[in-house]
Write a structure and sequence with these properties.
By secondary structure, the protein is an alpha+beta fold. It has 7 helices and 4 strands; from the N terminus they run H-H-H-H-E-H-H-E-E-E-H.
């Protein structure tokens, strides 16, 4: 599943963001089981789950904010920070791991001057490890904005980064 990045021409202030969150919550029942679909909808809307939205969802649904935070930090699909313009996911499944995924990730992180899971200061790149991209025959593999690149070396991965 490709991750769709949502961008706005104008940055929303907190009041506008919270109004959007309220609109999202009203589309769902306010039962405990609605927490994940609500959080998924918020992430689809903003590209991540803004921390202030957790308190707003809690006040509207009665689900404790601590439970919502636990969900967002437990499931890898959620993020609490916006992603960069380019999402780079390096496969660390068994085949990719054995073929050098760790070295590729390290080279990319050094080239972008960031830590895994973070976004570069210029907002261009987010680099993260993922469990499996399902392209084992191309190991080691990474995706850039959902497009797969395989049979990589640390050097070829950094060249891809520099092309962007």
């Amino acid at each position: 599943m490709a991750i769709e990045k949502v961008t706005f021409d104008v940055k929303l202030d907190d009041d506008q963001m919270l109004q959007k969150v309220e609109e999202i919550v009203t589309r769902f029942e306010t039962k405990r089981g609605a927490a994940i679909p609500i959080l998924q909808s918020i992430q689809t809307e903003f590209g991540y789950v803004p921390k202030p939205s957790l308190k707003k969802v809690s006040s509207l649904t009665g689900i404790p904010a601590s439970d919502l935070f636990s969900i967002v930090t437990f499931y890898a699909q959620f993020r609490l920070q916006p992603i960069g313009d380019n999402l780079i996911q390096v496969c660390h499944g068994t085949a990719c791991h054995l073929a050098g995924a760790e070295e590729i990730t390290g080279a990319l992180l050094r080239a972008a001057k960031i830590q895994e899971g973070n976004t570069s200061p210029d907002g261009k790149f987010t680099i993260e490890k993922v469990a499996c991209l399902g392209c084992c025959s191309l190991a080691p593999v990474l995706t850039i904005n959902g497009e797969a690149f395989g049979k990589l070396t640390p050097e070829s991965a950094v060249r891809l980064l520099k092309k962007i």
